[in-house]
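User: Can you help me understand a structure? I only have the sequence.
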Amino acid sequence: MKRDSKTKKIIYTAVSVVILVIFLFPIYWMFITSFKSDAEVFANPPTFYPHKFDFSGYMAQMLVSGGTPLWRNFLNSFLIASITTLISSGLAIFSAYGLARFKFKCNKYILFGVLVTQMLPTVMFLAPLFIIFNKIGITDSLISPMVFVCIHSIPFSIITLRPYYMNVPLELEDAAIIDGCSQLMTFIRIIIPISYPGIVVASVFTFLWGWGDLMGPLTFVKTERLYPLTVNMYKAIGEYGIDWNSLMAFAVMLTVPVLILFIALQKYLISGITSGAVKG
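Assistant: Let's start by predicting it. Here is the structure, written out as tokens:
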């Protein structure tokens, strides 16, 4: 019995390692390609590590990226991602709690509408939103891509957070109210600390969408100094051909903040994803 258990453990570990290598290999290839020269990028057979490190791709992006300083692109991406996260998480926290705790006849229709927004393709929203944004005068600004990301992230955050609130015993809220807390203070002091893993999950994925969004800024923003990193990366491919060394350097700089975020919050992400799947 012990031998069979040990054999299964070895097999599971080996399979896990193989899957991990498959998923991480594109990131590794992107990273090493950013340090290769043009000749080595197209070498046949391909090299799995750079024989001579070439930093020209990073230097080209650090100095000027598409006519705009790279720090400006980073700032635009960070503003879109962070403000979107604050708005989406703030609205979803209260919305999900209302759908979980207050039993209205229209709840199921609201939930159905929230689910429908997640099933529709993103491109369907671009033309109507462009007309609306143009009429109210927020095109060619960072506000338009923020609203565009919020349209998708708020429903996702509501779906993620609602099971957490449903799992919180009503007795905890009743006890807090008996001790003198108002409904709002009970929510802030009791419910939010208990459901923080779900809030972290919703916030991280919202930040990821805002950081990596391309369609929104590409459709609504026309001024080059307002471009985030994703649009400048896309423009570099279209206008100047594909310089793989420089392109992969851009991709590394776009990916590294996301990897750091996921590594720093992996404990909360795992806890949030698993504990939120108990009740729907």
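Now, to help you interpret it: The chain is about 75% helix and 0% strand. The two ends are 38 Å apart (CA to CA). Let me know which part you'd like to focus on.
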